[in-house]
Amino acid sequence: MTTKMAINAKDIFRNQHRLIRFIEQSIRLCSNQSLKTAQKHAKQQAEPDFQITTSISSAYTAAPEPIKHDADVGQQFAAVQLAVRLASPQQLQPKPDNDDALSFGKVFTDHMLKIYYHRSLGGWQRPEITPLENLVMHPAAKVLHYAVELFEGMKAYRGVDGKIRIFRPNMNMNRMNLTARRSGLPTFEGEEYIKCLSRLISIDSEWVPHSEAASLYIRPTLIGIDPTLGVASSDSALLYTILSPVGCYFKSDSDGAVSLLADPRYTRAWPGGVGNRKMGSNYAPTINVQKEAAQKGLQQVLWLYGEDHQLTEVGTMNIFMFYVNENGEKVLVTPPLSGLILPGITRDSILTLARQLGKFEVREEVITMPHVCELLNQGRLLELFGTGTACVVSPINRINYLGTDLYIPTMEQEKPIHEWIRETLTDIQYGKIDHPWAVVID
Ligand SMILES: Cc1ncc(COP(=O)(O)O)c(C=O)c1O
């Protein structure tokens, strides 16, 4: 009898996380039901100009062309080879108490994914999931000298139905492989990586926040680790992935908007450079300018380019402007993919959704500061906002340009377009709208 009770207690102890998850999901489903009813009611009363899209045609969901590997990359890895070494009970970390108060990238989950590449051993090696642990590398490793490093930023969302989803992962894989090629690092099969990543997320699934204000940030990283000092392509590399539960990345004013420093003395990217690739070396030189912005009481940097002061990006976000043209028509515009800006997945998704909505013109064209000033003076600028995985949309309320504060009326609009965008994208990400962009993790 005592032994039986001990076994039962052991079983309960071992499965307590499942029980907690079940209770949390039940509470969540109940509260979501009442939340949904309240939201539906509120929406009916507000009679918005913009309808929330509940079905999006497959014509708008095309995946990018898979990358073709160079012949000398060698063998690819496959998810079926994945080896798993779980953390011991002593290695497990306590999970954050309050999902809504998470700051960015300070807490990490219990496991990581590692895939080594050694040209001398034939190419990509067997993928492995291990406890989160420090990396050991030779002090001559290329990443430490020539910044041979690139990364991605993705998120896993716990949906209103309790399922975990990731958003358009094939787009991240495509961008990562393009960056790998530009960095002299080996390319890999994105689909196989996504399968390994899905396994990592399901092992650490308890770390995916139970909140729509938070998510699990995914940081795939690829580094050159050859122990040689030559500036040359990497014969050894490590593709690793860490996970971190996060809230929103950007600090904002009390009205939820950000203020920007636009100083034409600084630029982030230039034609022929790598502004359109997500490599670590693009980010280090921005840190001091960001510090200068903070010292002036501004939250982000608006990166300008060229004699005509073109707007390129906001901090680590793409930029969008909503305005009224000379004919009185509303236009949504974002800079084109000219090589100066990162091809954001949020940017692409917004262009797709807005074009499908068909309520206003959607353009990809150069925006300059003189044009912004002119629109402001004529009362035709409605909204400016940054977009990215970190925060979906980040409205802008002020730009400090050539020492003058320009006040942007983004937060003064009655039915702002950036709110429609945020709602539509998060509805997809958190599973309120069934959509092929949101991929369920088994
Ligand atoms: C420089 C830069 N621009 C734009 C973005 C937004 O891209 P995405 O929408 O894919 O997150 C990011 C974030 O990855 C970024 O680092």
Characterize the structure shown.
β14, α7 (345-357) and β15 (361-364) form a beta-alpha-beta unit. Strands 1, 2, 3, 4, 5, 6, 7, 8, 9 and 19 form a ten-stranded mixed β-sheet that branches. The protein has a six-stranded mixed beta barrel with strand order 10-11-12-13-16-17, surrounded by four helices. It has helices at residues 2-14, 16-46, 142-146, 169-182, 190-203, 287-295, 345-357, 369-377, 417-429, and strands at residues 83-84, 111-118, 123-124, 128-131, 149-151, 154-158, 164-167, 215-224, 236-246, 258-262, 300-305, 310-314, 317-324, 330-334, 361-364, 381-388, 392-401, 404-407, 438-441. It starts with a helix and ends with a strand. The protein is built from nine helices and 19 strands. The protein is an alpha+beta fold and 442 residues long. It folds into three domains: 2-46; 62-247, Aminotransferase class 4, branched-chain amino acid transferase, N-terminal domain (D-amino Acid Aminotransferase, Chain A, domain 1); 258-429, D-amino Acid Aminotransferase, Chain A, domain 2 (Alpha-Beta Barrel), CATH 3.20.10. It is 27% helix and 24% strand. Residues 10-55 have low confidence and may be disordered. The longest helix is centred in the first third of the chain and has 31 residues, at 16-46. Pyridoxal-5'-phosphate binds next to β13 and α7. Pyridoxal-5'-phosphate (PLP) is lined by residues 153, 313, 316-318, 342, 344-347, 388-389.
